[in-house]
Amino acid sequence: MTSDLEVTSLGVSTGDLEMSVLFYTEGLGFERVGAAEFGDVFAALCEVEPPMRARSQIVAKGAVRLQFLEWTKPGPSPRAPLPRNVVGLTHLSCAVRDLGTIVARLVALGGTVLEDTRTRIPLGRGTVEIVCVADPNGVRIELAEYPERP
């Protein structure tokens, strides 16, 4: 089947662009692939009133691209964490080889371990260990360490 649509990125609003980018590049292995600055011409698209100022950084890992937007006008508005049964995008899921090492690295880069999400799922060949870490913007990163595959 051919497609006339290509997903280019998922957007994440942030109050600290550099901290967000470091979390994903140094913590999860994404690479910087593009940057831009935005002004009033984008206000309607971004659903804000002019004057509007923002800058962005796109990071990529494989086919996944994230666009971080740092707002200066209007400033960023924090939001309360939402449970996963609230409609909308809920998390980024990653398979990891060493859960403890990745979690420690993400915490050092401003992440917060959500201890209540720790889950162990027994499989025939071992146990899957899963935990969520919130990035500096509160976005949930689900990390899963699977047993060795034969």
UniProtKB/TrEMBL annotation:
InterPro entries: Glyas_Bleomycin-R_OHBP_Dase, Glyas_Fos-R_dOase_dom, VOC_core. Transmembrane segments: none annotated. Residues 6-146 form the VOC domain. It comes from the Bacteria. Keywords: Dioxygenase, Oxidoreductase. Pfam families: Glyoxalase. PROSITE patterns: VOC. GO terms for molecular function: dioxygenase activity. This is Glyoxalase/bleomycin resistance protein/dioxygenase. It comes from Pseudofrankia inefficax (strain DSM 45817 / CECT 9037 / DDB 130130 / EuI1c) (Frankia inefficax).
